[in-house]
Amino acid sequence: MKSRGRLIAGASLVVASVIAVTGGISHAGQRNQTVFKSNVLIGVSAPYTGTANPIRGIPGGGAPWVIGDAEARLRADGDVEVEVEGLVVDPAFPNPAVAGINPAPTWKITVSCLSKDAAGAAVTTNVSSKPVNVGTDGNAEIETKVDLPSPCFAPIIFVANGAGNGAWFAASGA
Q: Which of 50, 131, 133, 167 has minimal Cβ neighbours within 10 Å of its Cβ?
């Protein structure tokens, strides 16, 4: 009888475990999970400044940029959070009108994904947020949303100019 009680208790434990795991998987699928996170963003520098060497089709800012601190997070539904401190043109840049400041009044967040087209061929897809106003100190907390392609492999998050050609000033991928 003791053995039968252990068997029933053991079976009950297995059933309870399966129910708990199944519920957890189902619940996790309903959450807006983080799919990419970076605690480092890198300012654009030569040879990536300008249009000669774009990354995934996005040109670099026309001057070298430096950054103090940064965090970026991308969630499965396209929610993007980016926080930067001190994203400015390199203070050593020879033009004193822009050296050490952020001369761009608006920034946008661009997420670049490796994806596929309708025929299944590999493509690079860049999606951008609406521009947001930023100050000359280069500090910003941006919470926005982009329309991610499916699939979105190897995402790169760019902090880019909100106007013009959308040149990037900082990017994930250190």
A: 133
In angstroms, the CA 62 to CA 60 distance is 6
* Dihedral Cα 164, 170, 173, 174, nearest 10 deg: 150
* Residue 30, token pair as written in the block: 């309903």
Q: Name the residue ranges covered by the structural domains of the chain.
A: 1-31, 32-172
CA distances to 19, 109, 159, 164 from 126, in Å:
40, 10, 13, 16
Tokens 């910003």 belong to residue: 140
Compute the C-alpha angle 162/157/145, nearest 5°: 65
User: Count of CB atoms within 10 A of residue 98's CB?
Assistant: 17
